[in-house]
Write a structure and sequence with these properties.
Elements lengths: L2 H5 L15 H13 L10 H22 L1 H7 L3 H9 L7 H14 L5 H13 E2 L7 E2 L4 E5 L2 E6 L2 E6 L2
Antiparallel strand pairs: 1-2, 3-4, 4-5
Length: 164
C-alpha cells in the first residue's frame, strides 16, 4: 500500500461507496475531539488524540488560573483535575469566560471555595456578563454577592465589603 493510500485508509472516501469529505470537515472533527470531547475521527490514533486533549486541558487550566488566581488557589493541587473534569466537554470561550462560567456553576452547586467567592463578587460588580456575550465593564454603581461575599463598585472602583 502506498503512503498516500495508507494515510487515507481511515477516510470513508477511500472506502468503496464512501462519501468524500472536505479537509475542513475533517479538521473540524479533530478540533471537536480535542476541545469538546467529541469522538475521535477515523484515521487518527485515539491514544495520541487523548494525550493531546489532556495536554490542551492542562494548558487551558493554566490560562484560567492566571485570570482567576483565587479560584485556582481554592482548589490547590486539585485545580487541574477539577477544571479538566468541568471543561472536558465544553469548548473554550476564553480563559476569563471559562473561569466565570466555572465559578457560577460552583456557586449553583454550593461548592465555590471561599477565596473565589470574593473574586467572583468583585468581577460581578465590575463587569456585566450574561453567560452568552463577552463581558463588558459596568458604567454605573453596582452591588453584587456570590457565595457569601459582597462587592460594591462605585466610580470604577470595586471593594469587597464582606468575605465568606
Amino acid at each position: 500500500m502506498s503512503a498516500a493510500a495508507a494515510g487515507r485508509a481511515g477516510d470513508p472516501a477511500a472506502q468503496p461507496g464512501g462519501r468524500p469529505r472536505s479537509l475542513a470537515t475533517r479538521q473540524a472533527e479533530l478540533v471537536e475531539a480535542l476541545t469538546s470531547g467529541g469522538p475521535v475521527p477515523a484515521g487518527f490514533d485515539p491514544f495520541r488524540v487523548e494525550e493531546a486533549r489532556v495536554a490542551l486541558l492542562r494548558k487551558r487550566a493554566g490560562e484560567v488560573a492566571r485570570q482567576w488566581p483565587l479560584l485556582a488557589a481554592g482548589f490547590g493541587e486539585r485545580w487541574v483535575r477539577e477544571f479538566g473534569a468541568w471543561a472536558a466537554a465544553r469548548p473554550t470561550r476564553g480563559s476569563l469566560r471559562d473561569g466565570w462560567d466555572l465559578a457560577r456553576d460552583l456557586v449553583a452547586l454550593d461548592a465555590l471555595p471561599p477565596p473565589a467567592a470574593a473574586e467572583l463578587a468583585a468581577r460581578e460588580a465590575a463587569w456585566r456578563y450574561d453567560g452568552a456575550a463577552a463581558p463588558r465593564p459596568r458604567r454605573g454603581p453596582a452591588l453584587r454577592s456570590a457565595a457569601g461575599a459582597v462587592a460594591v463598585q462605585i466610580a470604577g472602583r470595586v471593594r469587597v465589603i464582606r468575605r465568606p
